């Protein structure tokens, strides 16, 4: 899973920076302040969870746990659903896409929960 998660993190990191720059330079003046803020929220959550995905990739090399794998899957799905829905919402104005965003947020929460449970299950020496 190391390669898969690191490749996903590289892709999400690259696109997160590109989308942030696009919003700052290409969308300013074209979108309302409210939509720019929503777009920025998508970029922020994407980049934060990209770093989490890097951490999960590295952790997966040291800790053989399905929960760690699931954490990575949940983070990736969260980025796609949460951030992706915010991007499409702001660029198209289709407000019904806002119904997808909480599903992505749940993905983020599930990823952190899986990571927490995996950490709880680590056996301490001694």
From TrEMBL:
GO CC terms in record: plasma membrane
UniProt keyword annotations, A-Z: Membrane, Transmembrane, Transmembrane helix
Domain of life: Bacteria
Membrane topology type: Multi-pass membrane protein
UniProt family annotation: Belongs to the UPF0382 family.
Residue ranges crossing the lipid bilayer per the database entry: 39-60, 67-88, 100-120
Protein name according to UniProt: DUF423 domain-containing protein
Keyword Transcription regulation: no
InterPro entries linked to this entry: DUF423
Subcellular location, principal: membrane
Subcellular location: Membrane
């Amino acid at each position: 899973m190391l390669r898969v998660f690191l490749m996903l993190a590289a892709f999400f990191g690259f696109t997160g920076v590109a989308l942030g720059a696009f919003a700052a330079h290409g969308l300013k003046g074209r979108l309302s302040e409210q939509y720019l803020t929503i777009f920025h929220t998508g970029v922020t959550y994407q980049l934060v969870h990209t770093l989490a995905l890097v951490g999960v990739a590295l952790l997966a090399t040291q800790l053989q746990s399905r929960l760690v794998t699931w954490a990575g899957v949940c983070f990736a799905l969260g980025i796609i659903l949460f951030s992706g829905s915010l991007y499409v919402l702001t660029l198209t104005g289709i407000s019904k896409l806002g119904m997808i965003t909480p599903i992505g947020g749940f993905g983020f929460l599930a990823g952190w929960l899986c990571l927490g449970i995996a950490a709880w299950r680590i056996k301490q020496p001694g």
